[in-house]
Automatic annotation (TrEMBL):
Pfam families in alphabetical order: Band_7 (PF01145)
Domain Band intervals: 48-228
Organism encoding this protein: Bifidobacterium pullorum subsp. gallinarum
Keyword Lipid biosynthesis attributed: no
Signal peptide: none
Transmembrane segments: 31-52
Keywords: Membrane, Transmembrane, Transmembrane helix
Matching InterPro entries: Band_7 (IPR001107), Band_7/SPFH_dom_sf (IPR036013), Prohibitin (IPR000163)
Protein's name according to its UniProt entry: Prohibitin family protein
GO cellular component, one term: membrane
Length: 302
């Protein structure tokens, strides 16, 4: 719009110079200046009728007077518009809202940055989190957003950035301290689900929620570390008990097996069996001396 106004003024000035030059039989310099003015003015007006659009952008056209063209431009490339129309750009993809550490507040189109978010969990304990939300915008919703909020930056300040702070706080109330310390992924999934539901009517699609860190006061993390150490020692004791139980059971089984074997052996050694073994042993001897039962033989050895 500004280029159009400037071009129009230059073009009018060129016509004025042209009239003065011809009426007063102006010099070649005056005629040349007139031609330059006319060309410059026409060029500025022509440029004001063309705009370029990058991939990942949607252009909303606003007429002089404030009315909005209902159909936004969604295709990348060069486009033609009326010279009295202004272009408003909305980023449709790769938008990031990031709250990390003690960073300062900053807004740029659909992107926002700021400091960490403070939450309170189910147990009432306070923690600071670093969170990043990646989202995209449905191009068809750009006209409605501009009509309600103006530029994209205004919408981000009023809605998106506020929600990225408020929703994690609301969701944290459903998680206790231990869950937040040990189930960060589940917490991030719950935040993502809540944001998707809240942003659906705005045409925003959440592509990723990343909770990069959850920082509790040292007093809480120390107690958690102690509890973890106690749990490890408890598990070690339970494992030792289980090992001792298995070893005792093994020894019992081995003893029972030995007793059963001895029982079978004893039951198999009857008097007849023992006598047969005795006879078999005598039969295999090199010399045999039969001594009556109850006698006391004298054996002479040399």
């Amino acid at each position: 719009m500004i280029l159009f106004v400037i071009g129009l003024l230059v073009l009018v000035g060129g016509f004025i110079f042209a009239g003065m030059a011809f009426s007063n039989e102006g010099t070649s310099f005056g005629i040349g200046s007139t031609v330059v003015a006319l060309l410059l003015g026409g060029g500025l007006i022509g440029v004001s009728c063309v705009y370029a659009q990058d991939a990942g952008e949607v252009i909303v056209l606003k007429n002089f007077g404030g009315s909005i063209v209902d159909r936004p431009s969604v295709d990348a490339g060069f486009h033609v518009k009326a010279p009295w129309q202004d272009t408003i750009t909305y980023d449709t993809r790769n938008n990031v809202i990031s709250y990390v550490g003690d960073g300062g507040e900053d807004y740029d189109g659909g992107t926002a940055r700021g400091n960490q978010v403070t939450i309170n969990d189910k147990n009432g304990a306070s923690a600071n989190i670093d969170i990043q939300v990646n989202y995209s915008l449905d191009p068809k919703k750009a006209v409605d957003l501009y009509r309600d909020y103006g530029k994209q930056e205004n919408f981000v300040k009023a809605v998106a950035a506020v929600d990225v702070r408020s929703v994690p706080r609301e969701v944290a109330g459903s998680f206790d301290t231990i869950q937040l310390l040990t189930q960060r992924g589940e917490y991030a999934d719950a935040v993502e689900k809540a944001l998707k539901a809240k942003w659906e009517d705005f045409g925003l699609e959440v592509t990723q929620v990343s909770v990069q860190e959850i920082r509790y006061p040292k007093s809480i993390t120390d107690k958690y570390a102690e509890a973890q150490a106690a749990e490890v020692e408890k598990q070690k004791a339970l494992n030792a008990q289980e090992t001792a139980k298995v070893e005792a059971e093994t020894r019992k089984i081995e003893a029972q097996g030995e007793a059963d074997a001895n029982k079978v052996l004893n039951e198999s050694l009857t008097d007849k069996v023992l006598m047969q073994h005795y006879i078999d042993a005598l039969a295999g001897a090199d010399s045999l001396t039969i001594v009556p039962d109850g006698s006391q033989p004298i054996i002479k050895t040399e």
